[in-house]
Amino acid sequence: MGAQLRVYKRRIRSVTATKKITKAMEMIAASRVVKAQRKVAASKPYEAELTRAVRAVATGSNVDHPLTTEAEHPTRAAVLLLTSDRGLAGAFNSNAIKAAEQLTARLEREGKEVEVFIVGRRGVAHYNFRERKITESWTGFTDQPTYADAKKVAAPLIEAIEKDDADGGVDELFIVFTEFVSMMTQTAKVEQLLPLNLDEVGEKQEGEILPLYEFEPSAEDVLDALLPRYVESRIYNALLQSSASKHAATRRAMKSATDNAGELIENLTRLANAARQAEITQEISEIVGGASALADATAGSDR
């Protein structure tokens, strides 16, 4: 009985130590998600105005440009998947990877060759384990991405868009990331970055009058200048949303782990108390039995 009690006490100490760790991770994630939310909110105005500028150029000219014009017969597509470098975030990474695989399967059914670009160690490990081809990958900055990181990711994608298909270029660019909806809700999302769907991202508001522009030197040069900035800003916003979503998912997962550890400690404590009570009862029974035997032996010697 004493051995069983020692086992319960050892498990209680182990679970208590785990609970302290998960509680600390929950608090860290809670502080980081607030900062990430602020960065997401701060990045949206720039992205919105840049999209508005692209829409103005596209609607004010008839330029055939990769940013706004869909290829007649698209044959190659690039998919950028955003995951995290670390785990302990519930289904955060698996949901994004699943969405990317579904997108890839759909594009391949359409007869398109798909080039996969991945951000985050979890996504890279998933594809490497299954021996799937990765065109290029980046790791080490998913928790706190910067605009410089977005530029680094965007560079090969922009290069692929500007190339011809014969030189390894792509006709379409998709991004798969986790959209931050709220502290409790994060959703894996697929967006087509290029060619830009002006009907979806730049619908004219009722009563809005679009200004008239004169382009110098040309509308095509303006779009050439806007292309990298547009792709970089969209990727940066997606990185920030993915980071905020990951911290929110980690916070939720660690809170659940902390609560479960607390319940386990309560159950183990009850079992330990029951074992201790049984041990005390057994000791009392042995003492009473010994005293009774001694009393019987003494009474027999007196006779």
Structural class based on helices, strands and sheet pairing = alpha/beta
Strand content: 5-15%
Tell me the Rg in angstroms. 31 Å
Low-confidence sequence ranges: 201-205
Give the strand order, joined by hyphens, for the main sheet: 3-2-1-4-5
**Distance linking N and C termini:** 40 Å
- What string gives the helices and strands in order? HEHEHEHEEHH
DSSP, total strands: 5
* Helix percent band: 55-70%
Q: What assembly state would you assign to the polypeptide chains in this entry?
A: single chain
Average per-residue pLDDT, rounded, comes to 84
Q: What is the molecular shape? A: elongated
| Largest beta-sheet details | 5 strands, mixed
Number of helices: 6
Layout of strands and helices, then pairs:
Blueprint: H1 2-59, E1 76-82, H2 92-109, E2 113-119, H3 121-129, E3 136-138, H4 147-162, E4 172-180, E5 186-194, H5 198-201, H6 219-302
Parallel strand pairs: 1-2, 1-4, 2-3
Antiparallel strand pairs: 4-5
Helix pairs in contact: 1-6, 4-6
